[in-house]
Amino acid sequence: MIKKEMIAMLLAGGQGSRLGILTAKMAKPAVSFGGKYRIIDFPLSNCINSGVDTVGVLTQYQPLVLNSHIGIGIPWDLDRNIGGVSVLPPYEKSGSSQWYTGTANAIFQNIEFMEQFNPDYVLILSGDHIYKMDYQIMLDFHKTKGADVTIASMKVPISEASRFGIVIADEDGKITEFEEKPENPRSDLASMGIYIFNFNVLKEALCKLKDQSNCDFGKHIIPYCHEQGKKIYAYQFNGYWKDVGTLNSYWEANMELIDLVPVFNLYEEFWRIYTKSEILPPQYLSPESVVDRCIISEGSEIYGEVHNSIIGADVYVGPGAIIRDSIIMSGTKIGVGTKISKSIVSEDVTVGENVELGVGDEAPNKLNPKIYTSGIVTIGNGSVIPDGVKIGKNTVVSGITKPEDYTNGELESGGYIIKAGDEA
């Protein structure tokens, strides 16, 4: 029988609805990050850098881009005969067919996958955070404490603590109480959604709660283990960790990469981030171009100005175009004389000539003021913006738009244009 000490189960089926139009056509873990990467590259790279060579990736929502990106796992050295990476979508069973209804339910539906490796420990990961972590050190902590469950945790500002599962631990790190998103948190130690379980403990809890609707680790599995008297410990992580779950946090995390001394360094030799790279020529900066404080990915051609921005692979920036404080994803074309400010432009977008993005004063977005905030312009995947239009702040555009879609050639701040079939 195959025997693995620890395998990882990576939850990558989330819609990421707070990213709005960016996740209309792809799962959140498949969204581009830092020019050439996708969000899922970070936990996958952590796995192989930590010596975890068996990873099940659980997909569900809009999996096409994600599945194509992962392939057979070659970029992460996860193309293996025994172990490696396996994509695990929901599937029809003889008695019934059902979608994954919660994080724990997704794992429960794949118990047979885990059993074939006969692991001592199972590492549960989320596919939508940006961080570097050595899971082997966390496993050593788990073993030293004789734990049944270990929860990776980190200190957060108490004002933000109600967004997380909060743990209360004693001096030894043993968790005495666990509260899922409490209104009045009594601790600033937040769960990162990263768990190590003894496999027998995980299996028992999943089978016991298999009929629980929307079965979730934070709400159900961890409290159940606590009630059963299992030894649960908090492993405190002190590195960089970012939940890029909102457009503003996603924009900020990208912008932090181009700080003079970035908090999160993509260039460390000893902890590389691996990704599927397209075969593209090197980037080209024309003699007339002006570029400062940017990441410019391979295959891009820059003829205009780019300031304080992230440019994905195979992007074209036309002469006279000026881009500031923006994220331009791969395959996008920016026309002559276009000015872009504080925008997130998704993949394969065509922005016409003499367009202006991010003009005027801020106004609340009329479609969803909680998602489209912070003055950011958001352009959806494959969209087309016609020549000469102006687009205000806190706006969202998705689809092939035409001049007549813009009142007097303008989409005012807070406005939106979403073509049929492009709804977030």
Oligomeric status of the shown chains? Answer: single chain
Helix coverage percent of residues? 10-25%
User: What value does the average pLDDT take?
Assistant: 91
Strand order of the largest sheet: 5-4-1-6-11-8-12
Tell me about this structure.
16% of the residues lie in helices and 28% in strands. It is of the alpha/beta class and 424 residues long. The strands form seven sheets. Strands 5-4-1-6-11-8-12 form a seven-stranded mixed beta sheet, with helices on both faces. It starts with 5 loop residues before the first strand and ends in a 6-residue tail after the last strand. The model has no long low-confidence stretch (mean pLDDT 91).
